[in-house]
């Protein structure tokens, strides 16, 4: 509780010190990592494991024991327009009491038409002048976890991330960013508690823009502003999670988790909202059979919206984002699948997510 209180004080000081934040900044960092977690509705702060813990709770990298763990994920959004890739690897060191991890993620939209030169000087449309460019966001994370205290039935670990961000919009705009995450995890018997302060000291992106004289002329003639160098700030975000595992017998168990996502960048459309903080709950469950077969479900992203798109009566109802998933493990290889709705339960914006995980087991002499 003292640690959580300290995290809240740090958030308050950061918000007061900076004052101005860009809402929904670096949102590609909030997509998630691993089909297991996405199948549980993103409720994985207290129960993540393996190399994917770098994203959800770096303190849980301590679950990687003896052998390095690798996780790879690919997802496509909006019928393949947007592509998201994530990869991470974790190495246990210091007799399994410390773990380091490396992660790389990319969200990109490729082959975007550049229409700046579509119209010739005489006013005619010339499709031969069409070119394409890509808009892509990258993030590299260096993670570390340390087991602080352990006993017969409990374990306390702490961890953190150092993030380097690179964002490109064709040859027009580029940005470099830097941020830090801090995390803690506590496990006792069947209970697990986790807390992650993302962008702890606020994450910044410094943008620079490059336009040719002709491009500037086109932007000016079409009444578009020519951007100048700027800095984009991302407010801290606090993730709190609690999980409990129901063990029915030696082979069958059910993991449940409730997570609270607290944002501090202005009022959002969440269950609890204010100018200072917003609270967005998530819940997930995973049925585990003999550590070989998994079935998952989750719910999150609660928002108020119009019932069935009814713009006549303007009746508002609570909508949410459901998700489902499954997975199986064969020896040291694990394949997970998630089926999630990107919008809400009434909008058919579904996507399929597949991820692969495996341990690098050294051959014994």
From TrEMBL:
Name of the protein in its database record: PorV/PorQ family protein
């Amino acid at each position: 509780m003292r640690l959580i209180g300290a995290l809240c004080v740090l958030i308050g000081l950061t918000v007061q010190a900076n004052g101005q934040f860009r809402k929904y900044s670096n949102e590609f960092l909030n997509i998630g990592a691993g089909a297991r977690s996405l199948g549980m509705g993103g409720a994985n702060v207290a129960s993540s494991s393996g190399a994917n813990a770098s994203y959800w709770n770096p303190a849980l990298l301590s679950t990687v024991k003896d052998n390095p763990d690798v996780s790879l994920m690919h997802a496509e959004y909006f019928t393949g327009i947007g592509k998201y890739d994530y990869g991470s690897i974790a190495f246990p060191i210091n007799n399994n009491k410390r773990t380091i991890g490396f992660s790389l993620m990319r969200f990109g939209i490729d082959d975007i038409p550049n229409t700046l030169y579509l119209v010739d000087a005489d006013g005619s449309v010339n499709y031969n002048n069409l070119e394409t460019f890509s808009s892509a966001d990258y993030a590299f994370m260096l993670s570390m976890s340390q087991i602080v205290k352990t006993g017969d039935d409990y374990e306390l670990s702490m961890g953190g991330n150092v993030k380097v961000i690179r964002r490109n919009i064709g040859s027009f705009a580029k940005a470099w960013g830097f941020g830090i995450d801090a995390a803690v995890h506590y496990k006792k018997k069947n209970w697990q508690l986790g807390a992650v302060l993302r962008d702890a000291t606020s994450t910044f992106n410094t943008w620079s823009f490059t336009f040719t004289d002709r491009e500037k002329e086109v932007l000016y003639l079409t009444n578009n502003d020519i951007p100048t160098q700027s800095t984009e700030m991302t407010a801290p975000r606090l993730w709190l999670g609690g999980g409990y595992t129901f063990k029915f017998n030696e082979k069958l168990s059910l993991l449940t988790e409730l997570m609270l996502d607290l944002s501090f960048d202005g009022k959002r459309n969440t269950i609890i909202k204010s100018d200072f903080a917003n609270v967005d709950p998530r819940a997930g469950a995973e049925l585990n059979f003999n550590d070989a077969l998994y079935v998952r479900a989750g719910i999150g992203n609660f928002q108020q919206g119009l019932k069935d798109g009814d713009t006549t009566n303007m009746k508002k109802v609570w909508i949410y984002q459901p998700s489902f998933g499954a997975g199986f493990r064969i020896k040291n290889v694990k394949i997970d699948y998630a089926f999630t709705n990107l919008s809400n339960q009434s909008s058919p914006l579904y996507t399929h997510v597949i991820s692969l995980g495996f341990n690098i087991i050294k051959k014994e002499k």
